[in-house]
Amino acid sequence: MKYLGLAYFTPEKFAAMAPDDVKALVSQCPALDEKMRATGKVLVSASLGDLDTWRTLRPRGGKTQVTDGPYTESKEVVGGLFIIEADSRDEALRIASMHPAATLGEESGWAVELIPIDFFLGE
Question: What is the pTM of this model?
């Protein structure tokens, strides 16, 4: 089974952190990302770009309308994603728990949401 992991953060909390604290937090991420990839179960892992560069496309009046920014208004924003292939939900949870957003960053509102994928292209 494949699972999509969405790594969330709270922009306001992250922005309120001291620059040295942000640097210290972010510097811990590569080792945790590598630990997760070393399981051999990670198919995709990515950080998402700056929110100011996001665009939303939606149908309006028979045409595609493009607007700035994330589509949803929320306190938390997706900052990264990963796809893992696991033999069980417990294995998927174990692997997802290695992601930096599941391990670090409580002060910046980090969290991971793990979602089963019903359909995956390439299979």
Answer: 0.83
